[in-house]
Amino acid sequence: MKKQKIIIIVSLLILFFLALTSFLFNSPIKSSMTVEAGTTLSVRDFYKLDFLKNVHLINVRDMNDLENYRTDTPGTVPLQFLVNGKASVCALTVIDTVAPTGDVHDAVIIAGDKCTKKDLVGDINDATSVKISVTGPRAYNTSLAAGLYPVKITLTDAGNNKSEYNNYIYALPVKKNTKIELGSDTIKASQFLKKGGGADFDIQFSDEFNPDDYVNNIGKYTAKLLLTYKKDNKYKATITLPFTVADTKKPKIIGAEDIEIYKGQTVSYRKNVFVRDNQQGEVRLQVDADDVNINKAGKYTVVYKAVDDAGNKASKKITLTVLSASENHTDAVKKYAKETLAKIINDDMSDIEKLRAIFDYCHDTISYTGESDKGNKINAAYNGFKTHTGDCFTYYAIADELLTAAGFDDMMVERDKTGTRHFWNLVKYQGEWYHFDSCPLLKGESFVPFMVNDADLLAFSEDYGKRYPDESHRNYYSFNPDKYPDRAKESLR
Fold it and tell me: Strand, helix or coil at 432?
């Protein structure tokens, strides 16, 4: 009995093994299968029994290149496998039940441009092909005026699954390329707006953009700006715009004025002449005086020329008049200056002490009379040295001779307002220019215009004019700053 049971069990095992072997070798592939679109397939996915997915059946061959097979189109297709040399077919059904998603966002365009679907939709996540539809402003993909436009964006995949988004098109009234002049005080966000474009939007630079980093460097750059829709401040858009910093301005030749000399007198063409330009660094100044004959009386043309690094050119012509006057005081003035300096300065003095000694000499030893020869600096200085009298032009002229003889650069400043004329000196000290006026003020004034900056000079001038509103004292130190080199920021005390 026991032996009979063993025989039965063994027989059953043999039959099971034979049945399983027949199954594995004859019909292991499913007749149909359904998968979600985007599923990656392998041969083992088609085995009828799940536990076989971990087994490689050597009698089954893939005839569909499943490694590269795409399941991105819903529908049913027959797939063939080779089982023991015979074709076995599985009906594969691809379904799509997952709605598409994507990088859908507000579009930021320049007013006047077209908005495209690419401006609104970036990468799309879906296993099937997806159609994009946009509804909102009529003909959104034609030229749009500046404004804020609501749009509805629908993503529809091959399985007719839909995702809907509500977004906006920002049509911004900005320039496609803004040009900034080199050396500008700064770059303003409003410069990126088209003319009249500020009606609907406020514009400002983003926090990470510092315009002052670019104004002194020629080149092409990008700026990041934030625009806020005025009608509802919650609508904000950022945009990156190109801009160019360029040098298109000609340099300015300052201080080149007509000159008068006596026959035989040497000429300092560059004295008090300088070039102002928006580029940093010095611009070379050329002087063409080849036709001048200082030994022959007459009028001659002198041409000043300047070219900056960007190739912008400037020129200015002046007239040099050579006088044949019977009396030439040039040598006498030089002698007076040399003798005076020998009395008031010495080698042990610092430069600022020498400057103050010259200031005090002019201020204290010349008596103000209100008269001078304003047509000729040499004559004014000669008469001032000789008589110790004169007016503001005399003080300027004597100070100029003494400063030049002592090795200092200086130039004349003239009041630019209507009324009586007034003259004083600008003096260069340690690379910076200072106001220097040795002409006495009214008695009782505590202000000393020695080596002072614009702010202190003009503050006194305003107060002085209020207290003495006549034409001689009103706008006493008013001058055109563009005609002179940049002055020091701080006064010397």
Answer: strand
